Amino acid sequence: MIKEKLIITGMTCAVCQNTVTKSINSVKGVVKADVNLISGVAYVEFDETKTNINDIIKAIVDSGYGVKQDKVESQKNNSWETIKQEKIKESKQLRSRLICSLVFLLPLMYISMGSMIGLPIPSFFIGVNNAGVFALVQLVLTIPIIVINYQFFYKGVKALLKKSPNMDTLISIGSGASFVYGMVVTFLIVYYLGNENIMQVHSLMHSLYFESSAMILTLVTLGKYFESLSKLKTTSAIDGLVSLTPKTALRLNGNVEEIIETKDIRVSDIIIIKTGDVVPIDGTIVKGDGLFDLSSITGESMPVQLDSNKKIMSGSICKNGFVQIKAQKVGEDTTLNEIIKLVDEAGNSKAPISRLADKVSGVFVPIVMGIALITFIVWLCLGYNIGYALSNMVAVLVISCPCALGLATPVAIMVGSGKMFKLGILVKSAETLENLHKVDTVVLDKTGTITTGKFAVTDIKLLDNSIDENEFLNIVANIESKSNHPIAQAICEYVKKSTELNIKDFKEISGKGVSCIVDDDSYIIGNLKMFDESVINANSQSVLVYNQLVDSGKTTMLVKKNNTFIGVIAIADTIRDDSKNAISLLKAMGIKTIMLSGDNNATATMVGNLVGVDQIISDVLPKDKEEYIRKLQEQGNMVAMVGDGVNDSPALTRADVGVAIGSGTDIAGLSADLILANNSLMSLVSGIQLGKATIIDIKENLFWAFFYNTIGIPLATGMFSHVLGWTLNPMIASLAMSLSSVCVVLNALRLNLFKPKLDINTINKVKTKGVKTMTKVINIEGMMCGHCVGHVNDALTKVKGVASCEVSLENKNAIVSLNKNVSDKTLKTAVEKVGYKVVSIETK
Length: 844
Known about the structure:
The protein is built from 29 helices and 28 strands.
């Protein structure tokens, strides 16, 4: 399969978009086509053994639209920048057309309608005898407006001849019919003046309709101009990314610094970055250090200090410092360019919710043309003059707006996916955005998702009074420095600096531990398997401390000097700072949380209870995770799976929304629908909330588009004119049509103002709007570990009326939010039933 990006020109409404889509899909071998009206871009996926890009381009051209293949040769000529410049050019052309049209429209309106509102009109325009001048001057002023806006007629007639009439067709027929009618009336006025038929001249001179023809074209151009300005704002996220790519870079060539174009950077080049510079490549720092702002890539607001041997991404901004970077990914392979592609493709993809609008817009214009013709005939048959019938027919044509239908979904998707990125979330398709708002179950991998995936020292227990903690750690760090095991590295990272000791006979036994001689003393560090059974006393203090730490899910090692156990050191995969809060927020939003881990039950339970997930599943092999996700889906759940994007690929693919925790230069390559670029589970909370907001916005847009046309078209036909006195002249109809599209775009732009609700009390207020809530703090004795936290949490969340619960081992308390009255006695009983003592209960 091959995926190509095509730039389409000439599309003005939803019908155009549908026509292009149909023409592409008509080519044998095309698998999928996503055409975006806003950006003018089409992504086409096809089987290269059955067709080629030239056949697809020919099909688009034959349907009446322009097309060119997107070939990006360098960052400097980035296709998105080209598209943006074309959009800016289009906007400027519309502004010029509008100004030129107004130059002729204003005197036309003054002459044709000035007398109706009491404006002084030159005497040579007044009276029946001057009707010829009155009509001819209006004709002369209207012709330039039609010439200026000839594209409506050119595209409209062309589309009609191709049997795919669009918005331009409706405008051209409506405006053209008014103009032709005005010309006929002008001819008749001149004819009757020649024959001195004053009565006929008097009846015709105020039925010219030139002002309607000109005003329709000018107001539609005004609407298109405002629409073009609004559309430019929908791509602000990508614009910001594109602007990050510097045009030049400073390369170190031997000992000489030289300025080169970014496109000329090659792999292994040494690039110099100074304060204020933007990193143009992905690479490794080989010299120097600096403070870097990564917010443009990850959404993380705090700058990060990076030094030698650290990886760095393109788009990072050096806030302070000086570094030399060895280039590893350049040009189109950089993280920045990959992210631009992802955001671009997501914005241009289609959501399933848009299918109804696509179906309606496919038959919309022919139906409107039919209604307009029927309107004209019916009013003539009812005995009304041709001018009145024509006015209603034109009103029907120009008020109808397929644009609003076409813009309803894509404009919201484009703004929503852009906003996602600003929050540190990469979304790969519009379908993902739609699925996000339906998610009711979040399954989380433990290692690298809830936890950091890095070992850290958590406990140090001394068993010999003759040694202090600093000496103990110095000995252990010196011994472990001889090993490359992750546990050893974690200990050395914890101690950081140690006094070098004389170590001899170092031995490492896989899965057990290490041994050596230090200054004639024998040392053994390891788990129980490392020691002879003869020296292990199950009731000894050392073994009791060891087992207690092991039972809490930590990797624990005994340290033995000669024949004496001198201490115990425990290590664990540290929990991310925001994991607990994120899981609490997900639960507050009514989403079930499940931890799916390959670790043993003790470790998984400890972590799961500490962060407060609803369900803990341990000892699950990677290949079985996909099966578990499938079973959840069979039970009717909409499942989001959060993993590392590599080891969890099958489960992420199976889930309705696959979410990867991503960091570093592999962000864009992770296998998932959604990537949390800033390594934060809080971003998942934001993403789900924004997904809901985007779908709400789309539904609002679709409602407005359908409502506008459902009300506007009947009103334009004149059917309410005699019953309610409601009428709609063509000029007002054209203004309404123009504003409808602008309203849809502006409504979507509101998503840029979206702020995630990351306070659990705020979420609970939304969920229990109109319900009185109460918070109680329960002070508890007896909680010793993560298991205890889990027991208390489970007991309290089962109490009817408890909306949320947060148990703290550190503070020895539980904070419960209540959505109905729950007595202190009930809460106390629930806690004491699982074996813990309630000291006091405070009401906030």
